[in-house]
Design a protein that fits this description.
Length: 257
């Protein structure tokens, strides 16, 4: 059977069905092949440069236009683990909330998964508790489907774990930009749904600093650090129980000129 399937005809069939990401099991079902036949076929596709192996049992269709997939790390990221959605620094950049281009694509998932490197791309997986896994949607990026945090969830995820979004100073810049389009009430709703009072304190304090004070946030009753990864040195803001352990200049609007 596999002898009658040329690599290019298989690549075309996968392309016609928009199967830019696939597993051996999917190929077996699509072409009615046995396990040995599938791996022989995939080996021929790899030899002709029509597919690329991302990790064990997971392949990308490169076809005759490989850059279409290779230039779209958000699409690749969406398929490396299930369930998953792109978030943190990657989502902030996608929405234009930060000009900084992350060198790693950050993915939220309920599974534990080691980082993946594929060619010159790197992917980092952040494990969330199931109740925090919400607030994402399907977007089309370069005419390929991507599951990505919505604008409010990208901000809330980043405040929850700033180290995956370039640190708190970068998240503050993103929040400032996001407030032009994101409803504060949605940020409050999402933060409370996350069930993390430290997150609520960070969001409440930063919204106040940015001139958009909010009510109804679940906040910490004991002092917590604004930047989790830095020492506790800094002034305490009692209302939010926030220790401002970053230079306050990092929280101020940037002057243009």
């Amino acid at each position: 059977m596999t002898e009658r399937l040329s690599p290019i005809s298989v690549a075309q069939r996968l392309r016609q069905q928009d199967l830019f990401y696939f597993t051996p099991a999917l190929v077996a079902a699509l072409f009615g092949l046995e396990r040995r036949q599938v791996y022989n076929l995939i080996a021929r596709l790899k030899a002709d440069g029509l597919v690329g192996k991302v990790e064990k049992g997971k392949f990308l269709l490169l076809g005759l236009e490989p850059e279409r997939v290779l230039s779209n790390p958000l699409f690749i990221a969406s398929h490396l683990v299930t369930p998953a959605y792109v978030s943190y620094w990657s989502a902030l950049h996608y929405y234009g909330f930060t000009e900084q281009v992350p060198l790693i694509t950050f993915v939220a998932t309920t599974k534990k998964k080691r980082p993946v490197s594929f060619r010159n791309l790197r992917f980092r997986f952040v494990t969330l508790k199931p109740h925090k896994f919400f607030g994402y949607r399907r977007e089309w990026v370069g005419d390929l489907p991507v599951l990505i945090a919505d604008e409010a969830k990208a901000i809330v995820d980043s405040l929850d774990q700033p180290r995956y979004a370039g640190g708190i100073a970068e998240v503050v810049k993103a929040l400032r930009s996001a407030l032009a389009t994101v409803d504060v009430a949605v940020l409050v709703e999402y933060a409370n749904r996350m069930g993390d009072k430290s997150l609520g304190s960070r969001l409440g304090y930063l919204l106040e600093v940015l001139g958009c004070p909010a009510e109804g946030l679940l906040c910490s009753t004991t002092p917590i650090k604004l930047e989790p990864g830095r020492p506790r040195a800094g002034r305490l803001v009692p209302r939010w129980q926030i220790i401002v352990n970053v230079p306050e200049s990092a929280l101020a609007p940037q002057e243009v000129g």
